[in-house]
């Protein structure tokens, strides 16, 4: 009986965890540059402390979380007409500076210039250039090239007085070496900054949408809910079996 309780408990727990991942994906279906989270699970036979397994492994197989990952499939790109909106074409990332001064990566290209004259993301994280955070002159007209070059025309200057101020750091590390943080940003597994990749190209005046499929996410939510109901039903069955066994013992 305890076998049924514990196997059902692990199944219900992982169904809830997977539901949380799917719900987070669905909540970010319209978030710029969002990468869907993946929830993977695996069956693990129960083993004792010394590493030996019980004989009836088929009735002692628990559910455990596997290494979580992300879906790196590019999302749809749409034109916005905003010169500070950029989208990565294909694979690649935009380097930003986190509040602790370290480097992280995002696909969210909805940029703007803050009150300090820095080019920042929608979360007000400074965009990193060749020499650190990118700063632009006040009231300047900013344009961003395919290679991430940031050019400006200062206020009052003629249209041909274009000046190159910096270049956005665009990287493309191996996805297997990247991990998602709680803040939604990605970082390299070893914590070291990734090298700039000149092959990464951007699309100006455009934004990349989330790669979450809302229909598939809704189907997953329904499936997870049914799996959780099935596991809780098994727990109720185990409780009923225990009560019946107690009654039989009381008659003996």
Automatic annotation (TrEMBL):
Flagellar basal body rod protein N-terminal domain: residues covered: 5-35
Domain Flagellar hook protein FlgE/F/G-like D1: 87-152
Keywords tagged on the record: Bacterial flagellum, Cell projection, Cilium, Flagellum
Record's subcellular location: Bacterial flagellum basal body
InterPro entries noted in UniProt: Flag_bb_rod_N, Flagellar_basal_body_rod_CS, Flagellar_FlgE/F/G, Flg_bb/hook_C_dom, FlgE/F/G-like, FlgF, LlgE_F_G-like_D1
Residue ranges annotated for the Flagellar basal-body/hook protein C-terminal domain, each copy included: 206-248
Name of the protein: Flagellar basal-body rod protein FlgF
Organism, scientific name: Paraburkholderia edwinii
């Amino acid at each position: 009986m305890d076998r049924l309780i514990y196997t059902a408990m692990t199944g219900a727990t992982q169904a809830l965890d997977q539901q949380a991942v799917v719900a987070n994906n669905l909540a970010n279906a319209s978030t710029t540059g969002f990468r869907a989270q993946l929830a993977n699970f695996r069956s693990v036979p129960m083993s004792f402390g010394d590493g030996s397994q019980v004989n009836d492994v088929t009735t002692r197989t628990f559910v455990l979380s596997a290494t979580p990952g992300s879906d790196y499939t590019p999302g749809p790109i749409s034109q916005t007409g905003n010169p500070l909106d950029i989208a990565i074409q294909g694979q690649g990332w935009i380097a930003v500076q986190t509040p602790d001064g370290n480097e992280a990566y995002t696909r969210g290209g909805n940029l703007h210039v803050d009150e300090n004259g820095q080019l920042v993301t929608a979360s007000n994280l400074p965009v990193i250039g060749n020499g650190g955070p990118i700063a632009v002159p006040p009231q300047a007209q900013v344009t961003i090239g395919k290679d991430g070059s940031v050019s400006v025309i200062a206020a009052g200057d003629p249209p041909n007085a274009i000046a190159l101020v910096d270049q956005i750091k665009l990287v493309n590390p191996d996805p297997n070496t990247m991990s998602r943080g709680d803040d939604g940003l990605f970082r390299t597994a070893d914590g070291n900054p990734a090298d700039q990749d000149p092959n990464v190209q951007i699309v100006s005046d455009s934004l990349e949408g989330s790669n979450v499929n809302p229909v598939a996410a809704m189907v997953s939510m329904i499936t997870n809910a049914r799996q959780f109901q099935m596991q809780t039903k098994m727990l109720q069955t185990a409780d009923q079996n225990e009560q019946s066994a107690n009654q039989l013992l009381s008659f003996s």
